[in-house]
Every structure is written in C-alpha cells, then in structure tokens.
Amino acid sequence: MKTNLSLGKVSGIRISVHWTFFLLIVWIIFDELKRGGNAKSILFNITFILAVFGCVVLHELGHALMAKRFNIKIEKITLLPIGGMASFEKLPESPKQELLVVIAGPMVNMVIAILLYFIVPVQRFMQLDFTEIFEVLMRYNIQSFLFFLFIVNIGLVIFNLIPAFPMDGGRILRALLALKIGRVKATKIATSLGLIMAVLFFLIGLLYNPFLIFIALFVFLGALSENQMVQHLAWLNGHTAEEAMLLNITTFNPKDTIDIVVNKIVSGTETNFIVTEDQVVKGILHHKTIIDNSNTSVLVEAIMDKNFKTFKDTDNLKTLYQLMHNSKQELFPVVSNKKLIGAIDTTNLNEYIILQSKLAH
Q1: How far is the first Cα of the chain from the last one, in angstroms, to the nearest whole number?
Q2: Sign (positive or negative) of CA dihedral 123, 126, 128, 131
Q3: Residues designated as active site
C-alpha cells in the first residue's frame, strides 16, 4: 500500500503528503458540520489549513536548502497531520552546521509573519477593542484569513523553539551544548527535556485537548529515537564496513534460474541475495521479488534490482548507518577494488552495535 502522495519536487527535494493528512481534512469538515457550519465556512477552514501546511513546507525547505549548502542530501519532505518532516541522508557533522540548518526553519516562519504583519495590517487590529476584533475575525474574508495565518506562523516559531526534542528548539539546544560537551551528552540533555515535555503535553491533553496526546506521543518517540541514533553513531564512529560485514553469503549469477534461488530460501535463512559476475556486483535480489516470481520460469537477470548502493570496505560505519536507515534497500554489497568481499544488512549492523555497546561499558 502506497502511504504517500507525491506533490512534486522543489530544488530536487521530493515533497509528499502522508495519507493520514487527509483525515485532518475529513475531521475539519465533520467538525464544521457538527457546529452548524455552511459550505463557505468549510471552504474557508480547508483553504486555511492548506495555507498553514504551505507555510510548514516552506519551513522544512528552509532546513533542507540550508542543509544542501553543507552537501547534506535531503531525501524528502513529508507532510503529516501534526506538521512536516524532512528526511536527511545524514546529520550535520559540526554543531555550527546543525545550528544553521535548524534555525533556518523557524526563520522562514518569522519572515512570513513579518510580511503578513504589514500586509494585514496587524497594527490596525491592535487599535480595536476585543469585541470589534472578534467580529472582524469571524468574517470569512481575506483580512481574517491573513491575520489567522500571521498568528499561526508566530505560533510555529514559538512552538518549534521549545528547547526539547524533536522540536527545532531541542536541536538548537543540542547544537549549542555540543560546542562544549560533545554531541552524545548534549543529545541526552535535550532528549530528557523532550521526554519531560511529552509528559506535560500528555497530562494537559487528558484534561483539555485530546490532540495534545498525539503530540505527546510524537515528542516521546522522537526524543527516544534521536537519543538512540546519536548513541549508535558514537559507537560506530571510527569502525569500518569490513569489521561488521557478513562473509558467508550466497551469491547468484545473472544467468541462474529463479528455481535455484527459491530452493536456497527454502533450505536456508537468507532472504535477499547479491547477483555477481566474476565477483563484480550486477544486482540485488529482493525477497518480495523472488516470491512474486517463484512460479515463473525466468532468469535472475530479468528480476534483479540494478539500482543499488554498494559500500567500500573502508567506509565508516557511522556514515553507512545513516545511509542504510534512509534507504529501502535491505542488503548492501561491500566491495574492495570493485570486487565483492561481503555484505551488510540492518540485522548484522544492529548486532555489531550491541557488541560495541557492551565493549563501551
């Protein structure tokens, strides 16, 4: 099942919408109908939500375009009901780079808010009393639309600057702390604040707004995931692919038949295979592709994946860890002088991480 709808690319960065985003649109329609809204109010609110998420996309593009300046590849930007998420190929190497990448997002929203401040204009609202402001904002017109958008962008800046993971503020705090105490300790402090914030959001959500419970879950999982990833990167730094690679792997020739591959799956534990010719990698056989073609009479070369990544035996595992977790490829050939010498998958890399964690203690 395809979970994302592609919206196209901006500066080579793919932008997509997760299917759960459309649940938000359905909820808006349902809520308006429940409150006695009409077609005009429903259209106003849906258009407003789309505008808000347009600002979210610009926010994420701020991060992404700044990251590209430091040669950090951005895989995609995904829109979710609770916001946007940019998927980076790897973390910025230095705290200063991370600080610039992170702060670029909220700065975009600040620029949007400043522009809207003069376009609305906001100062005219400040001259009205509360009743007059309320009456103006309840009208479904461009003035109230832009004023609400101004408020949302200010809110995005404030919310994202909360000093706890996975918000931008947590990353800013981590970058500043990392200048003095290193990334691992800095991440522990920032993620600890994230966990505290998750508990607060959860408790407030139970009392006032159930939506905050979902935000609490997002913050909680994001903080744990970030702390785990940084710890793993620290354990892997300085180690090479050669140290962690699998040696006893089964390979196939492009001219082998699919029957041979199926028999190997049935009789062994391997599920993905590397296709070689004279020790040169020609493709990858994925488990699903093998099963889908198990009842056909085809050669390996007809179904192997020719679009794959390989690692050199001297590549740093820290870099490989980030590349592997942002790739759909499950098995990665390890080569030396363009010849296959082994392979790495997430299972054996995680086992290597466990081993390093034990040795670190």
Answers
A1: 42
A2: positive
A3: 60
317-325 and 346-360 helices, crossing angle to 10°: 140
Q: Is the pLDDT of residue 129 over 70?
A: no
pLDDT tens for residues 200-226? 888 988 888 777 887 788 788 878 887
Q: Kindly state the average pLDDT of the residues 83-94.
A: 74
Backbone phi, psi, residue 6, to 5°: -75, 135
The rounded distance, in Å, linking the Cα atoms of 352 and 346 is 10
Nearest partner of 346 among 324, 328, 361, judged by Cα: 324
- HEC string of 8-75 equals EEECCEEEEEECCHHHHHHHHHHHHHHCCCCHHHHHHHHHHHHHHHHHHHHHHHHHHHHHHHCCCCEE
| Separation between Cα atoms, residue 60 and residue 83, nearest integer Å | 10
Question: Hey, what's the torsion of the CAs at 81, 86, 87, 92, to 10 degrees?
Answer: -150
**Would the CA dihedral through 221, 222, 224, 230 be positive or negative?**
positive
Burial 71-107 (b: 16+ CB within 10 A, else e): ebebebbbbbbbbbbbbbbbbbeebebbbbbbbbbbe
pTM across the whole model: 0.68
Sheet containing 4-10: give its strands across.
4-10, 13-18, 74-80, 83-88
DSSP β-ladder status, 273-277 and 251-252: parallel
pLDDT at residue number 254: 94
Antiparallel, parallel or unpaired: β 311-312 and 331-336: parallel
Structure tokens at 266: 């049935």
